[in-house]
């Protein structure tokens, strides 16, 4: 009889070796097969009070889906999870499990927690294969685009990122007709246009959107609300409620000399250019991948966006890629696993250093002037405040600088929506967790409310808003519900 796997050791999740993966955009983490997934799920203690579910910002039904996977019923597990989270093949790839569900698993106290993220991805792929014929099937038809394609329904959702998709899922499951409008050409928001292919393949995002389309959700891409039409136009078209899920995609810069030089770009522009080229691979355009063969690249910042930009630069041929951060390694906002993968791929890190100016010649970047930093008292975020060390300047040659220093909310939609209250950084102000705004029949959620955050937080906000909007519309139909908002 085969020896039983110790309960505290997880079934390893396969990864492609660094030397191979750094030359292409194919996914780094691979998925469990049926036997591995069942073995991993069978380690679950099935706790009476599942701490993993409390640790998940969307409170996914983790205990129940793991029990189904343990019995070899992955497709049923996917159906169960989709009722709560419309994009498990995405959250199963990008969530910070170690700080959320897996961080709360009691097995982690003596050994390795259940690989909840890997199981979520596995069951989503089995479910998508059952529904669509393949876990990453291309959408059956192009996404409709342009204002003329907008068909009125019960609810208009503005933004097809995770918050918008979760709201649309919650509403359409309750029998309401939903139209999702989005300015970009493919649904998915940052999952399609920011997070790189080797972390989250575009086809996985498209497959989840296609599943939602087959559930009855209408998508109209290439429509910018606030430019092509406004929120009042949506009500005039007879939508009964609107959910704003426009994200936080306004890239911040540093305001230091030389940012205007050719060769200084934001991570948003850099990653979007690569994403558009990758999407065009699938027949949606003709953009070409940027070429960085032999270039020296400096990435400023150390969050997830910085890791994605640095690892993308390596895949585009840059030989020397250095991430600079003004605080210490332990203060980096990136997931430790992302940093480890970047290091394996040859990305270098330098801590306690910040750029002072970018130096150019004839309008083109040549170098970065750096200053060493030391750490002082904690700031409002609880992290020590970095301050420059006197007379510690140095100059580093660079061909490309990528600024990954944060995102704000774009102001054009709030600016064209009279009465919509916004707060610091342009964030839309809401009055409760369901996202009631200052405007009647208008809800908001995701990054446009919280500021740059995570996929699962956006999913939770969208789901709560969808449930609240459905309850409001049911009450309004019965003549009971007052309109939330002002
Ligand atoms: C490079 C990068 C890497 C990341 N990596 C991770 C990660 O590993 N794990 C993780 O959990 N999170 C990650 N995040 C964060 C995560 O992607 C976001 O928190 C999440 O996508 C927010 O979802 P959202 O629905 O609020 O907005 P978004 O995903 O930003 O979607 C907003 C959508 O609204 C549309 N829109 C905006 N304005 C309008 C308008 N006026 N009219 C019509 N449409 C409009 C946009 O086109 C977009 O499609 C990353 C973010 C970036 C930028």
Please outline the helices and strands.
Blueprint: H1 18-21, H2 34-41, H3 51-55, H4 62-70, H5 74-82, H6 88-94, H7 101-104, H8 116-132, E1 155-158, H9 162-173, E2 178-182, H10 190-193, H11 202-214, E3 218-221, H12 231-236, E4 241-244, E5 250-251, E6 264-266, H13 267-284, E7 296-300, H14 304-315, E8 320-324, H15 336-344, E9 348-350, E10 353-361, E11 364-378, E12 384-388, E13 394-397, E14 400-403, E15 407-408, H16 412-415, E16 442-444, H17 447-450, H18 455-477
Parallel strand pairs: 1-2, 1-4, 2-3, 4-16, 6-14, 7-8, 7-14, 8-9
Antiparallel strand pairs: 5-15, 10-11, 11-12, 11-13
Helix pairs in contact: 2-4, 2-8, 4-5, 4-8, 5-8, 6-8, 9-18, 13-14
The structure holds flavin-adenine dinucleotide.
CATH-defined architecture of the largest domain: 3-Layer(bba) Sandwich
Would you report the number of β strands?
16
So what's the CATH class of the largest domain?
Alpha Beta
Shape: globular
Largest sheet: 5 strands, parallel
Q: Indicate the proportion of strand residues.
A: 15-25%
Low-confidence runs of at least 5 consecutive residues: none
Protein name: NAD(P)-dependent oxidoreductase
InterPro entries: DPD_II, FAD/NAD-bd_sf, FAD/NAD-binding_dom, Helical_ferredxn
